[in-house]
Amino acid sequence: MDNTHREHFSGFLFGLFQLIIILSIIPGGPRTLKWIAFLVLSWISYHVITKTTTQDLAADLGLGSAMLTQLLIAFDMMFVTHPDTLKNFQDSHDGKITERPFKERALWAFNIYTNPRGIGWAHESPHLASRPSPSTPRWRFVGFQVIRALLYIMLECMAYVLNASNPGMTTSTVPLSQSALHWRALGVLGFGVAGYARINSMHCLLSAGVVACGFSAPERWPNLFGSPLQGWSVQQFWRCEPSLFMMVNNFDDVI
User: Fold this and answer.
1) Against a cut of 0.85, is the pTM above it?
2) What is the rounded distance in angstroms from the CA atom of residue 3 to the CA atom of residue 51?
3) pLDDT tens, position by position, 64-89
4) How many whole angstroms separate alpha carbon 214 and alpha carbon 142?
5) How far apart are CA 213 and CA 138, in angstroms?
6) Per residue in 5-31, pLDDT tens?
7) Which end of the chain is less packed: N or C, by CB atoms within 10 Å?
8) Cα 179 vs. chain centroid, distance in angstroms?
9) Phi, psi (degrees; rounded to nearest 5) at 7
10) Residue 68: exposed, middle, or buried by beta-carbon count in 10 A (0-12, 13-18, 19+)?
């Protein structure tokens, strides 16, 4: 990928993309406005992905994948799945969401936008990873998550040391693709472990902070990934090892 002639990544466009998604999935809006919003979202995602760069190929790939995923989810929410069929078990109000005041519909849209795994909703996956029991004390959960985060940070640092010590990745005269197989495999393992550790550490710290502030409960925070031992088939792998874009999963408790 040639980034020489690309513009610098636009945080404004990325933020605008998120805002338009939330506004466009508010139930009850005119269908014409939803189509306009979807066209604008399509243009923003195309421009950001193909015309801008963060100067980091891994970050560019992650942002592009996330935006395309969000675009497809927004299309589903706007034109395919009817909002009245999506039930939040924490919602004590009766009646259809499409018939409620604008404030409640906007909050509903924000909640579902920040909860892609549907934690606490009727469409929550039955194959989520393990979670704390409802009887788990709040501060025990917070302490445990902080300790886990520290361990993941240590694991990420170890992976970076491993990568920095890998001659296949540090020898400028020999491309990694031409290095010995074991050095290439070690490089893939190092990057994979580092990414896994960072994502989990961020999840642990976010869950600890939200639960410590009293905005959420421990049982609302299942682990991001299932056990590797559960991935013994392709179906089991995708069922029990959630995709990386599902990191932010139950921040709807904050409101």
Assistant:
1) no
2) 9
3) 999 999 999 999 999 999 999 998 88
4) 11
5) 10
6) 789 999 999 999 999 999 999 998 899
7) N
8) 33
9) -75, 165
10) middle
Of 83, 47, 86, nearest to 63 (Cα)? 47
How far is Cα 87 from Cα 27, in angstroms, rounded to an integer?
Answer: 13
Neighbours of 179 (CB within 10 A): 18
* pLDDT tens profile 145-172: 999 999 999 999 999 999 898 888 888 7
Q: How far is CA 41 from CA 133, 210, 245, in A?
A: 39, 30, 18
Alpha-carbon gap, residue 22 to 16, rounded angstroms = 10
Amino acid at the residue 59 = A
Domain boundaries, the chain: 7-113, 138-221
Q: What are phi and psi of 88, to 5 degrees?
A: -95, 120
- 154, amino acid identity: M
pLDDT of residue 3: 61
DSSP line for 60-122: HHHHHHHHHHHHHHHHIIIIIS-GGG--BTT----S-GGGS-HHHHHHHHHHHHT-TT-TTBT
Q: How many residues does the chain have?
A: 255
Q: Which amino acid is at 214?
A: G
